[in-house]
Amino acid sequence: MAISTDCSTIPYDWYFDPAVARLEQERIFRRTWQYAAHTGELSEPGSFVSTRAGNVPVVIVRGRDNELRAFVNVCRHRGYLLCDGAGKRETLQCPYHAWTYDLDGSLRSAPRSELEPGFDRENLGLVPMLVDTWGPFVFVNPDTTAGTLAEHLGDLPRIVAEGGVDVDALAFYQRFEVEYDANWKVCVENYLECYHCAIAHPSFSKAIDVAPGTYALEEYPTFSTQFGPPKNGGGGIYDATGEIDRGQFHLLFPGTTLNVMPGRGNFSIGPVIPVGNERTYRFLDYFFLPDTDPQWIADYLELDTQVGGEDRVLVERVQVGMRSGIVTAGTLMPESERLIGHFERLLVDALGADG
Ligand code: FES
Ligand SMILES: [Fe+2]
Questions:
Q1: CB-ligand 1 contact for 113 (6 Å cutoff)
Q2: Which of 47, 64, 81, 143 is deepest in the core (most CB within 10 A)?
Q3: 69 falls within a domain
Q4: pLDDT tens, residue by residue, 171-183
Q5: pLDDT at 130
Q6: Percentage of residues in the chain having pLDDT higher than 70
Q7: By C-alpha distance, which of 232, 273, 279 is closest to 254?
């Protein structure tokens, strides 16, 4: 027995089926631009940072020539994860058997390789991927044949600039990390509607006007946007008055969220990453203008933490509900949840690529 309706979501088993998860890695996460790091971690020649693009471990390195390069963070010998954390290096040496790579990814030396007559050092460099920046934000794409970051971002930098944020003026403040017992799409779809805000996020709804007609939704080829002005001119849980007169919440497909709250110069950005069929890892990098009042930042972060905790309950209970096996899909509200429909169309298109 299958129960579904006209305005159905994608099937619920897509939210836990390992075959779908595998296809998403192959056709989405290995082929798209994703936020991975910020330039503050990569300021000097020799700086490196390990990160990920979906399930692909990534290391981003600033070379001696000052160029940023990104590689699959996997030793070409027998698969050891090459780099951990962030720091500064002269070379990238694998801790397992000491194969040593130059900062440009080429294999410089491998102990005892002179005893192996056929050893093909030239072809054993780290596997490269695309890397590019927008302001302080570093993006990677494992697919070296993909289009440019600028193409993927489309109108997003213009919209952010018009909203009063100069991304080049932002300073990194802190990273927040979290894991959820839910499929990554549950997390993304929860992010994409504010239909739940009035009931599930009372504090957020005191600060932001979430009423239909005021809270605006827009769709673009590679991302979607929610605009939320402050409520009652900015009173409430934190001071929402300042140079930014309305909030912007963007989802860059597949899973990079970009957030601007009304008030002082602020920005947060980070990926939603599947780490299991029913497990999601997120990190969010917070940026502010360098001279922003610390108390304002503290109030803003308190609200964000509160909203995050409320969202955890929502996504984890949805994940359990999706496994009933009897209710096999959800029902979308075509207006209020328009951006979920947009996301699911992008998802289906991407999964269907190559038939
Ligand atoms: S796995 Fe890296 S040197 Fe052996
Ligand atoms: Fe929420």
A1: no
A2: 47
A3: yes
A4: 999 999 999 999 9
A5: 98
A6: 97
A7: 273
Residue 98 alpha carbon, nearest atom of ligand 1: 3
Helix (H, G, I), strand (E, B) or coil at 344: helix
Same structural domain, 292 and 174: yes
Sheet order of strands, 137-141 included:
34-38, 137-141, 128-134, 68-72, 56-62, 47-53, 86-88
269 in the same domain as 316:
yes
Q: Are residues 104 and 208 in the same domain?
A: no
For residue 265, the enclosing domain spans: 163-352
Decide: residue 85, CB within 10 A, 0-12 exposed, 13-18 middle, 19+ buried.
exposed
Q: Is residue 116 part of a domain?
A: yes
Residues 275, 9: Cα–Cα separation, whole Å: 23
The model's confidence at residue 355, banded by pLDDT at 50, 70 and 90, is very low
- Quote the tokens at residue 127: 């596997």
Give yes or no for residue 96 CB within 6 A of ligand 1.
Answer: yes
Proximal ligand: closest to the CA of 201: 2
Task: Please count the residues of the chain.
Answer: 355
> Does residue 328 belong to any structural domain of this protein?
yes
Output the six-digit token pair for 149: 């970051």
CA of 323 relative to ligand 2 center, distance in Å: 21
Q: Is residue 17 part of a domain?
A: no
Number of Cα atoms under 13 Å in the Cβ half of residue 76: 21
The 10s digit of each residue's pLDDT in 282-292 is: 999 999 999 99
The answer to whether 54 and 30 are in contact (CB under 8 A) is yes
